[in-house]
Design goal:
By secondary structure, this protein is mostly helical. Helix content is about 75%, strand content about 0%. The chain has nine helices and no strands.
Length: about 200
Amino acid sequence: MNIQTESTEDKIISATFRLIRKDGIDKVTTKKIAAEAGVNEVTIFRKFNNKQNLVDITKDHYMELFLNKMEEIFSFDEDISIEQYLKDNFFGLLNLSDEEFSVLKVAMEEGGEISDRKRLISQINDVILDNIEEFFKLQIQKGEIKDINPRALSIMCFGVTFQSIVLWKVYNKTPSVETEQYFQEYLNIIFNGIKE
């Protein structure tokens, strides 16, 4: 039987993230992190030098996991229909666990410098938009949609999917309709437009 155990560094990083989620960076101390991780405070300094370095490593670690998840959600099989791809994106984001989505919330609220937040948003945008744009380029090549600007269409779909989910999951702003109905209205607008 092969049992993998979490390394000391991983325990400390996990504990740091849990505490940041719960209390915010300013209230988290190396002493609290050590207690949460079940290690001695000296171990934290030996492995990470200082709290800020540990926080930066923790953010980078969880951001990488989040970006990988975005890549997974927005990647596509060439044979998938437009409706199914958009549905998979929308519900893939909607079904992220609170812990997975809290990575974004922590990064935005505890992001430090404004330039760090811009870099973070840019990374997320690039992963999502690049995948959606490639999908629409393929659909244009296949003759499934008109020859329109795939980047503009990507930005529109990104705005509806990602930003809607951010409003719901991060800021608790829920729509006044059921999720499936909201998604169907979104598809209707994409395929039929808004003009009478």
